[in-house]
Automatic annotation (TrEMBL):
This is Crossover junction endodeoxyribonuclease RuvC. It is an enzyme of class 3 (hydrolase). Mg(2+) 2 binds at residue 67. It comes from Frischella japonica. Mg(2+) 1 binds at residues 8, 139. Belongs to the RuvC family. InterPro entries: RNaseH-like_sf, RNaseH_sf, X-over_junc_endoDNase_Mg_BS, X-over_junc_endoDNase_RuvC. Pfam families: RuvC (PF02075). GO terms for molecular function: hydrolase activity. Its cofactor is Mg(2+). The active site is at 8, 67, 139.
Length: 160
């Protein structure tokens, strides 16, 4: 049995999703968003770190999976995203969690079946795979998709 924490990083809204994996079976444990709601970047990074740390203490995950950096629309956005990722990763490492990174296209491929899937498709498939009564918020669904991708990777490696 493994508990996997998935993180969809963002400097203003960081999605998180937690699942339990037993063999091929995956079960929903929790999800949501860390909202930073302030203008200065250092305080946002502090809130991301604190929020991820709190989630780790609450769920006690065995694995930490996060989306890799992708090319943002502009350099400033890419730098802020990288710093948000860094805050989340430092929280994981400080709690002795192994960190795994997945490209957005791989996550979409793993969950939806195509690397070009849109957010609505990801939300729908996460809802179906985890048997949820409603679609999770977009950032939380992305984080759950990252956790599901890691669960698929674990299962594939164990079976080899």
């Amino acid at each position: 049995m493994s508990i996997i924490l998935g993180i969809d990083p963002g400097s203003r809204l960081t999605g998180y999703g937690v699942i339990r994996q037993v063999g091929r079976q995956i079960n929903y444990l929790g999800s949501g968003c860390i909202k930073t709601a302030v203008d200065d970047l250092p305080t946002r990074l502090k809130r991301i770190y604190a929020g991820v740390s709190e989630i780790i203490l609450q769920f006690q995950p065995d694995y930490f999976a996060i989306e890799q950096v992708f090319m943002a629309k502009n350099a400033d956005s890419a730098l802020k995203l990288g710093q948000a990722r860094g805050s989340a990763i430092v929280a994981a490492v400080n709690h002795e969690l192994p960190v795994y990174e997945y490209a957005a296209r791989l996550v979409k491929q793993s969950v939806v079946g195509t690397g070009a899937a849109d957010k609505k498709q990801v939300q729908h498939m996460v809802k179906m795979l985890l048997k949820l009564p409603a679609s999770p918020q977009a950032d939380a669904a992305d984080a759950l998709a990252i956790a599901i991708t890691h669960a698929h990777m674990i299962y594939t490696l164990i079976k080899k």
